[in-house]
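dude i think i finally got it to work??
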Amino acid sequence: MEIEKDLADIAVAYGSSRGASYVEARVVASRNENYAARNGVLLGGGISFSRGIAIRVLANGSMGFCSTPNLTKVGVVDGVDKALKLAKVSQRKNPIRFSEEQIVQTKWKSPVKNKFEDVSIEEKQNFLIDLDKILKQEFQPKLPTRTLLLDLYSDQKYIVTNEGSKVESENSIISTHTFNTAKGKAGGEQRMSSLGGTGGWEWIEEKNVVNQILENNRGLVKAAQHAIEKPFSKIDVIISGEVAGIIAHENVGHPSEADRILGREGAQAGESFYLDLLQNENLGEIKIGTEQVTIIDDPTRPGNSGFYLYDDECIKARPRYLIKKGMLNELFLNREYASILNTKSNAAARAISYKREPIIRMANTFFAPGNFTFEELLNDVKKGIYMKSFTEWNIDDRRFQSKYVGLEAYLIDNGEITETMIRRPVLESTTFGLLSSVDGVSKDFYSPHGDCGKGDPMQGAPVWLGGPHVRLRDIKLGGELNNRL
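look at this
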């Protein structure tokens, strides 16, 4: 399927001729296929297509954005005129400038062996129906409500700027989502679990997806059936890659977004407690965790949901070291905010479709693997909790006060995971409290899928929420019983 690169080139040439200092055109053709089933019955599904062009211009120090599905020369010229009009009527006190960046002309794509369109609709639907049969056979009647979703997304993209950059890409993302209810004590338990990554239909078998879903639901059923309430004060806690991933994303990733720090996101998705820190000290001088804490966001990590090699401003992606050995090190930047901070972009600009402007986003955010095996982390814990999965989480708008509620959680006794399951232990602390309690990180890695919402209009971007096991020392652990005492 060819996309209309010539129209993007026309948009850039026309915008430059009308006096814009910067012009960017992005043509996107996408395919989205979704199916859902509940208790073995298909709820719905289908295939949708989207095709259009996004145009951004800088004029008079202001930004103008316009998008249109009208992929004709007339439609593109009209889109440029509208973007220019928006820019020229804006009255900004501080002109927008973009950082100076390297000009690139390149192509990239995520590896695909079996394209989604080459697999029959029946096979995709049968995957959900057969998966439900497997779950029902193993867990019925303990798992009375089973909701399964399958999402298949692919796109082709061409971005060109009047500076001379041109980037073509093809991306393909597959994900499964389960939202199941298990019977048990105190009304049972629920869990939403997502798996995903870049690739084609081959991902289902290569990643042993059915086995992973079965294992996740075994934990759900066990927690509902056997977990007991037990009060704790301060205790050692080992969190899995699943729990560490959501902490890295929420407590470190979001407050590291420069647009959030400098106020653009304040009325939409919140602010960042980093603003207070950076008013008095510089990056690299602020200690936020122990030396064992290094947190990276790496779009170039192959196979993960947030994978890309160039962002939507034609900047080459690289690993971003948000925290390095406990010290704040780097922020997420696009060209606008890089210019404000007198530095270079680190390729954090992403848009979910041609209808949206690129904004600062995360990709694959995680604790960097450490030197321990999981067994070594366990061996040094006399009394503790192993939180393997979570059922809910909450965090304030400044990403400082946070709470993570465990689902499958086990008592650790003298370095051994016991069969005693703890009901809904609550890891409730500040970002400083969590990161300053870390004293060990494992070598292993877990790779689930996530969707991160941001912006207005909302942009739900695919991200990756995994990582290694992390050990937290002497940390306050709450729970439902604690809250009643």
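The chain has two domains: 5-226, 234-484.
im so relieved honestly
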